[in-house]
Design goal:
Structural class: alpha+beta
CATH class of the largest domain: Mainly Beta
Number of helices: 6
Strand content: 25-35%
CATH superfamily of the largest domain: abc- transporter (atp binding component) like domain
Radius of gyration: 38 Å
Largest sheet: 3 strands, antiparallel
Order of helices and strands: EEHEEHHEEEEHEEHH
Shape: rod-shaped
Oligomer: single chain
CATH topology of the largest domain: Coagulation Factor XIII, Chain A, domain 1
Number of strands: 10
Length: 254
Amino acid sequence: MLLYATCPFCSSSLKIQQQQLDTRDGLVRCGHCKKVFNANDHLINPAKPEQQISKTAPLLKASWEKAVTSPKKRFHYGILCLLLLIIFPLQFLYFDYQQILNNASIRPAIDRISSRFDLAIPYYQDLKQIKIIHRRVSSHPHVKNALQLSIIIKNAAELQQAYPLVSFSLTSLNGDTIVQYTIPPDQYLSNEMIGKPFEKNSNQLIELDFIEPTIDTIGFEIDFIEHPLQAHFPFHTLLKRLLVIIENLQITDH
């Protein structure tokens, strides 16, 4: 005969055979809390146990059971917290991003985050740390009525940074600019170097061939210009990437 008893220690309901009670004088061990008690003193209407269990009544939780929150709801709260943690720094970053990205003390951490999540955050940039260690303008060795510019620049910063645009201009005897060229990195770097950073304490050779001006020139000037991709932080691209990361996390959670 099947009987029901309630554990006095954890309130769990137990199924017990009458033979068990007769054999052990009513002593049983709770399968949940492992306590021993006399089931005869805690039987639930042994004659008609089915009357004690309502099909529509809610299930009672014992003291040892913990409420389980839906994983999906838990995840939604986690996503909300993650978005808040991301949005607030981005608001500050939006208004003062250049100062933050070019802060040498925190830049290594920014680069690690960018690499870890593939965020494509612009490289560090400090044009004052790009030095010219050699420069020369001479007649082209193979092309008639052409000149050749040869310069070597060095990244003197303690961090890798983006290659700059190089501005080169020729001036007349009166100091007027006769001709000016702006050379982006993809025109003076080799194919395998395009898109890569200017490593710290490294040198880069830049050569430019151009037609010799008809007006007499007396000198030339070289300046560095910040790359447009550095001057305008791609927030929309960063946000799209973050949304993809969050979507992947949601798929993993399910």
